[in-house]
Write a structure and sequence with these properties.
The protein has a domain at 6-138 and 222-279: Beta Barrel (Thrombin, subunit H). 5% of the residues lie in helices and 46% in strands. The chain is built from two helices and 24 strands. The chain has helices spanning 6-12, 20-25, and strands at 36-42, 46-51, 57-61, 66-69, 75-79, 90-95, 98-103, 108-112, 118-123, 135-137, 143-147, 152-156, 162-165, 181-185, 188-193, 197-202, 207-211, 217-222, 225-229, 233-238, 244-248, 258-261, 265-270, 273-279. The strands form six sheets. A four-stranded antiparallel sheet has the order 1-24-23-22. Strands 2-3-4-5 form a four-stranded antiparallel sheet, with no helix packed on it. Strands 6-7-8-9 form a four-stranded antiparallel sheet, with no helix packed on it. Strand 14 and strand 15 (188-193) form a beta hairpin. The longest helix is centred in the first third of the chain and has 7 residues, at 6-12. The radius of gyration is 18 Å and the shape is globular. The model is unreliable at 1-32 (pLDDT under 50).
């Protein structure tokens, strides 16, 4: 079912990661994609990025260096400890005071403060978690990790101890999920497996539902809306309904490896760099 215009998708796609002032701005009519103009390109040599709820950007370069930039592009910090644990697998800036940097090869999480100084290290191997593609911040500021060998979603404290875990997924699913993304939102936890869909749990690891949406890129959650895209369209699915909405991706964003969208700024990562589009 089509929505009224692409501006609805653009403003919902990552509203959860935008400043409060931007969220208030959505009370007024939103601009269409044509109302955004390219204002800055950062790069090249950027392989990944994310945005916190203050609009700060976390830029990962090809040399495995993590930089924090203000919304205006000013440098706010650099994380240079790039050799100890190998390649950075993911960055979670859900809490801008506690940035999670995950090294999949060593199943190790580094927690950084707002200046990108190390404040804690969690070695998941101490809990015998030897394979985990996805980690994410939990509702209580602990960490969710999916143990692929044990087939359980586990909540880990800062000291590396086990707080809670689900039942063995092999006992409840015919095909065991292999999530690449873990997100917490509105008292629910979402595991996204591009091949199998979305698995939804409560904050204590009890399975609530499974949603058959597959092949999405840039999976995220806003309240109880699931957001994603493929190479051609943006998608939004409202939890608990059959309401799937889609809109074509504008031509200016085609070829992107990652897209993050807020009501006032659209971030488009391409091989040439991170393009930042601002409302005119």
């Amino acid at each position: 079912m089509k929505c009224l215009g692409i501006h609805i998708i653009l403003c919902l796609f990552l509203l959860a990661g935008t400043p409060a002032s931007a969220q208030q701005d959505t009370a007024r009519p939103t601009a269409t994609a044509a109302s955004f103009q390219l204002v800055r390109t950062i790069g090249p040599d950027i392989v990944d990025f994310t945005i916190d709820n203050l609009g700060n950007m976390y830029i990962l370069s090809k040399d495995n260096r993590l930089k924090k930039l203000s919304p205006n592009g000013d440098s706010l910090g650099v994380f240079n400890d790039v050799r100890r644990y190998g390649k950075i697998g993911s960055i979670d800036a859900t809490n801008p005071l506690k940035i999670l940097v995950y090294y999949r090869e060593f199943t190790t999480i580094i927690e950084l403060d707002r200046f990108l100084n190390i404040i804690n290290t969690i070695d998941l191997r101490k809990q015998n978690i030897l394979q985990a593609k996805a980690v994410g911040l939990a509702y209580d500021n602990n960490v969710w990790a999916y143990d692929e060998l044990d087939a359980r979603l586990k909540r880990i404290a800062d000291d590396g101890s086990l707080v809670d875990q689900t039942t063995d997924f092999r006992q409840i699913f015919d095909s065991v999920p292999e999530p690449t993304v873990i997100r917490s939102s509105a008292n629910l936890v979402y595991l996204y497996d591009p091949a199998r869909g979305v698995y939804v749990f409560d904050n204590y690891g009890t399975l609530k539902t499974r949603i058959d949406v597959r092949g999405w890129l840039d999976f995220d959650v806003l309240d109880k809306s699931l957001l994603g895209r493929d190479s051609k369209n943006f998608y939004r699915y409202q939890l608990g309904t059959l309401d799937m909405k889609e809109e074509p991706i504008p031509a200016a964003y085609q070829g992107a490896t990652r897209i993050k969208i807020t009501p006032t700024i659209i971030y488009v990562l391409k091989p040439a760099g991170l393009e930042i589009y601002s409302r005119k």
